[in-house]
Each structure stands twice: as structure tokens, then as C-alpha cells.
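Notes from hallway chat w/ T.B., transcribed later so I don't forget. T.B. wanted the structure written out for a chain they're using in a teaching module, and asked if we could keep both sequence and C-alpha cells in one place. Agreed to drop them here.
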Amino acid sequence: MEFDTDIESQMIIQKNLRRALDESSMVTITDKNGIITYVNKQFCETTEYSSDELIGKTHELIKSGYHSQEFYDNLWNKIDSGQVWHGEVKNKSKSGKIFWCNLIIVPFFNKHGKIDEHIAIRRNITQQKKYYEENLKNEKMITVGRFSSRLAHDLRNPLSIIQVSLENLKLLYGADKSQQHKMDKVEHSINRITHQVDDVLDFVRERPITLNNHLISEIISESLDSISIPENIKLILPKNNVEVYCDEKQFSIVFNNLILNGIQAISGKGLIVIDVNENNDEIIVEIEDSGNGIPKKDLPHIFNPRFTIKKQDTGLGLVHVKSIVQAHGGTIFVTSRPTIFRITLPKN
């Protein structure tokens, strides 16, 4: 009688353990060859397979292709030797959705001491993995940002010295056309590197936004102070001198980048037209250039970090432009042929 009571107690304990596992984890049981004999509801919901589709099959069904054959060989060697295996596994659902699991596989022995089956207990850690990877990415970006900022600052001093030396050479040899042509090429290279350095500094530098009312003409004027408009390009400024509630320094960076973008897009004679309009709710700024336009396939990526269609460019300028516009509660779009950058800003 006491023996029967012990068996009954053990069965109740096992039943409660099974229920606790089923409610908290994904559970599967396989025979010694890896053929699935049991799956719980959570496993079916996550993998998107029914129990009928899974039982009699192997876990090959949910392989993502991420892990090597060596990974699975080591796993099987461990559980075949009677040891518990524990690790993280990347799987794929029926619809192709990727999910990560913290997996424990426990071998069970029969009365003869031989492995009879394996029980696998999985916990979905997809969100934790995403969070960890995002944190890691952010930490890397902070490190890269600090290094880039230091490097950009270090480059500025020698660039300034080269620029001053070039100005002196122009005074000495400016009358010689062949020398002038060579010096123009050097100046172009200095300006290009300076622009790239400024791109990096603007991108990594954290500045608080200081909002005030500013005339659009003042903002454009400040941005033009650091730009040399080539003789072959005509810049047409807006007729409407609208007042904008913004950070003047930040928005001069926006105009600076978009005007330079237009200059670089034009080969031969061309036009850059800045137009400003307003309605009851918004101020609309359009910057159009007469260049060759942006290839259609590149338009969706134009504001992505490190994406550039120019060979000698950081790919950060337009990213920074977008972040400034969005920080002001605005939007920016681009169309091609002709290339028009359209910025909308809320009046309030």
C-alpha cells in the first residue's frame, strides 16, 4: 500500500513538473536517434508547425543554416556520451521567421543504463539578443565617433597650414597660368578633404538645439560663408524671406550640405535654385540642381549612413541633414531628374 502511494506521489510530481515546463518553455522529446515523439503547445506556436507536422520528424525542420555542421556534431557527441548540452541556437519558423533559443538538452536513460530519449527545453531569447546586439552596436558607434572626432580635429591643423601656404603660393605665382591650374587642383583637394572632415565632426558632435526665429536669408548667408560657388554654376536665392523657428547653426549645416551636394552633381554649366514657400502650418524649402540626377535605385538609400553615390565622399552629410530636420519636427524628401530636396518644417 505504501509502495503504491510512493508511485502515485512520483507520478503527481512528474505531472506537475511537465505542466510547469509546458507553461514556461518550449519542450520537445525525441528518441535516441533524434526523431521527435512529443512537442508542447509553445513549441508549435513559435515554430508555426502543428504537432502532426513535427512528430516523426527531426529538428532539421527548424534549422536556420546559421550554425556549422561542427556545431551540431559537438552537440550530438556530448548528449550521446550522456552529458547535458546547454547553449544558444538560432532557429527558423515555418514562415522563415528567425528566433533565438536558450536550449538545454537532457539525455534520459532506461533501466539498462542506455540512452532512451532526449528532452529539449527551449526559452525564446530573441528580444534579449536584439537588445544586446543594439547595445553592442551603440557602444561601437560611440567608440568610432570618439576616434573619428579626434582624427578629424587632428587633420584640421595641417589642412589650415596647407591652405595658408597655398594662398602665399598664389600671390607669388598667380600670374603663371600653368602654375595657377596646378594650385587650383590642390585647392580643390583641400576643400574636398575639409568638407569630409566637417562631415565627420558634424555627424559625431552632440549639440543641443537652440530655437529662435531667424530669417531664411540669414541662415543661407551663414552657410554660404564656407562655400566657394564655382564660376560655372549660378545660385538663385529665394525671393521670399520667410522667418523660420529653428537652430540657425544647425540649419546652416543643412543648407551647406545640400548646396555642396548640388555643386558636386553638376558637370559643366548649371543652376542651383533655392525656393521657399509657406502655408498656414508649414514652411517648405526646396533646393533644386540641374545635375544628372540620382539613379532611381539609389533614391531609397540616399539618407542611409555610409551610403554615397560619389566616390570621394563620407556618406554622412545627408544622414546629418536628415537628423537635423527631424530634430526640428520636419521631414525631408528627394526626387530625381531634376534633383529636388524638399524640406517641410512646422511653423510652431
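Follow-up for T.B.: Residues 209-348 form a domain with the Heat Shock Protein 90 fold (CATH 3.30.565.10). Might be a good example for the class.
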